[in-house]
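Case study 2.
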Amino acid sequence: MSERGLFEKLREVRAALAESERRPPYTLGSNELLRAIAQQRPSNRTDMLGLKGMGERMFERTGRHYLAVVAAFEPGATDQVPAVQEKPGGPAMPSSDRR
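Prediction:
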């Protein structure tokens, strides 16, 4: 999959997280951060924390979601990204259902 396609999917996931948390999307990562993720395709927490704009707190909020999107774009992946669903009484969690 293309870098542009990955960037767009990251934006969709960020928007869904922002909606479920009732926050502005930019508080869950800037476009610059999402572009860096799309370009570098980090595969783990350490790689993700090496990106400008991704600190510990941001990783705790968004890291697992963004890593799941990157993994879905790797060669041999099924092109399916876990949906973000709001957990009753809590923050959004990745769904085990695939789109």
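The chain has one domain: 3-98.
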